[in-house]
Amino acid sequence: SLVIPSQLQTLAVNNLNNTQYVDKSQITSFYSQYQESLHRGGIVTQIIKGNDGHRILIMTGLGLSDKGLTKTLYWYEAQLD
């Protein structure tokens, strides 16, 4: 069976960068689009077009500490096609 690589990584909200499948500019606009939901502690799941045109499943949410939400985005991405 075909194993499609996926990965969970952490991204600093104040210093976003490229991931394997998604460019920094896409991540930045994704974050601003869903910022309100993320800052309420939500988990956002979306399918977007990645940097090479493939469909990429994104699941992301902000980290939690005993002081509340952190500035760290837990970012999971998997290529769907």
Number of helices: 1
List low-pLDDT spans: none
Helix/strand order = EHEEE
Helical content class: 10-25%
Mean pLDDT: 93
What does this structure look like?
There is one protein chain. The chain has about 80 residues and is α+β, with helices and mostly antiparallel strands. It contains 1 helix and 4 strands. Strands 1-4-3-2 form a 4-stranded antiparallel sheet, covered by helices on one side. Helix content is about 20%, strand content about 45%.
Briefly say what this structure is.
This protein is an alpha+beta fold. It contains one helix and four strands. The longest helix is centred in the middle third of the chain and has 16 residues, at 24-39.
Features:
single chain; 81 residues; alpha+beta; 20% helix; globular
Topology:
Blueprint: E1 6-12, H1 24-39, E2 44-49, E3 55-65, E4 68-79
Antiparallel strand pairs: 1-4, 2-3, 3-4
